[in-house]
Design a protein that fits this description.
By secondary structure, the protein is of the alpha/beta class. The protein has 2 domains: 160 residues, Rossmann fold (3-Layer(aba) Sandwich); 54 residues, Single Sheet (N-terminal domain of TfIIb), CATH 2.20.25. Helices cover 39% and strands 28% of the residues. The protein has 8 helices and 9 strands. The strands form 2 sheets. It has a 5-stranded parallel β-sheet. The protein starts with 10 loop residues before the first helix and ends with a helix.
Length: 234
């Protein structure tokens, strides 16, 4: 397949800043260690069913799925646009003794930066919603297609925005870790949807709060399926 060379769009800057700021608390919010027990059986089935030996984790965050796949014997490249997230990936790699390659890249820069094609591309964590136009979504999926081997598979996580928008759901989740509480919620505006993370830290005598926000473009099921078909995914 031909490789694409599209440059990252402007929305990537705010996404990078958002996740750079969130990186120190990301593992606390997502339960990094606890998730291995719950998710490994499912990914083991996928690895065995599709014969996955190599994979690229696009939008890897702090690398949870990269390390999970590595534990299952997969040769993994972990890619993310956030330098601060990737610092934590490298730290985890040392702590876990995992041989995971690390790459700083947006989705659309991947084809010119990766030296090989993969059996699988994995993009979890609702990363696609950070693509703020239909053209950006299409370009990113085309880039995923271009770095897959013939017959390769793409694993995506996209929240059920058909339901979320129909009910205008605000609170996505509330997670507690020690003295911290993380509230993930949406604001609906005329210009779109804002994704917010409120952190409440009670470890000090005076409770501290921080709020981080980034724009999202909710992707509905029909649009995602149509765009995937247009990018040669079955």
């Amino acid at each position: 397949m031909a490789r694409k060379t599209e440059q990252p769009l402007d929305s990537n800057l705010s996404v990078m800043e958002f996740y750079d700021a969130l990186a120190p608390e990301y593992d606390e919010m997502t339960g990094f260690q606890k998730r291995f027990v719950h998710e490994k059986p499912f990914f083991r089935l996928l690895v065995e069913k599709f014969g996955i030996r190599t994979a690229l984790d696009a939008g890897c965050g702090t690398g949870f799925h990269s390390f999970l796949l590595a534990q299952l014997g997969v040769d993994v490249t972990a890619a993310d646009i956030s330098p601060e997230m990737l610092k934590i990936v490298r730290r985890h790699a040392k702590e876990l003794g995992a041989n995971v390659k690390v790459l700083e890249s947006s989705f659309q820069s991947l084809p010119r930066l990766v030296p090989q094609a993969f059996d699988a591309v994995v993009s979890m964590g609702n990363s696609l919603a950070h693509l703020l136009t239909a053209d950006e979504l299409r370009a990113s999926l085309e880039c995923f297609s271009s770095i897959l081997k013939p017959g390769g598979v793409l694993f995506l996580q996209n929240l059920n925005y058909d339901r979320i928008l129909a009910h205008r759901e605000r609170v996505q989740s509330v997670k507690e870790h020690g003295e911290k509480t993380f509230v993930r919620f949406y604001d609906y505006t005329e210009s779109g949807v804002s994704f917010n993370i409120l952190t409440i830290d009670k470890s000090n005598p005076s409770t501290q709060q921080s709020l981080r926000s980034v724009p999202l473009r909710p992707i509905l099921k029909d649009e995602l399926l149509e765009t995937l078909r247009g990018c040669r995914f079955e």
